[in-house]
Amino acid sequence: MRDPESAWREALYGPEGFFTRGALPADHFRTAPLVGPELAEALLVLLDRVDFALGRPARLDFVDVGAGGGELSAAVRSLAAGSLARRLRVTAVELGPARRVDGVTWTRSLPERVEGLLVGHEWLDAIPCPIVTGPSDDPWLARWWPLPAGATAEVGAPRDAAWADAVSRVRGAALAVDYGHVRADRAAGRYPEGTFAAYRDGRRVEPVFDGSCDLTAHVALDACAEAAGGDWVLVSQRDALAALGLVGEIDPARWLDTAERASRVAELRAVGGLGGFGWLLHGVGVRTSDLLPPLPPWRP
């Protein structure tokens, strides 16, 4: 009998896996890039700050890890303007079939070097990891998720390693955007059954390992932060988007257009919804304080 981590990996990335066969996340759950262009607009503001901090290099990278259908990559490419647009190279990293997206390079593996901004948007939650029922002497659990007898948890070590590897390739900034948890809540017993879940056709379903559904679990973003090290901040999407100028104001002279935009921004910043996502931002050769102002620490 296979262990849950191996079964999970096979179900997503094996020959008949959910993502290998070309399933699009957009068909199964709503993600921020599908709401509208606003997330890409905010990330372009962040990218411009990275660009300035790097001294406006001749070539600037935007790398979208776990790109899905390429919606975020396409929006960043189409919305970029001026000198930044002329120097910008957009790369979508995805294990599933390559998509045709104008101006976007599609690849199955991380670039060796990234000078600019690397974004893992709902990438880490799709990295399979061990699922354990306590008691356990696993060292990662001892550090990050103290597990009483009978409780279940996901061991986040594979996500930590993946994120540390991604950050190590970057000169500029690396941003992980995901739903997750922090040690204080884990240790307090907030997740006694873990967070492993499955989604199909927009609904949460019973997890099965046959490639028919997306399998996911919340991310211990604080553990990922420590694994990658360096200069980092962990804040909420709600606060980060406001700091990047995305506040959804309504202009009475253009009420209809701006009201629609404000509605999309409100969805991206909603408490209890997408606004509760964690933004883990690492600066590499760039200070995070030059990219975001001081913000409250993330509490999911």
UniProtKB/TrEMBL annotation:
This is SAM-dependent MidA family methyltransferase. SUPFAM superfamilies: S-adenosyl-L-methionine-dependent methyltransferases. Keywords: Methyltransferase, Transferase. It holds the Pfam family Methyltransf_28. It comes from the Bacteria. GO terms for molecular function: methyltransferase activity. One of its GO terms (biological process) is methylation. The keyword GTP-binding does not apply. The keyword Coiled coil does not apply.
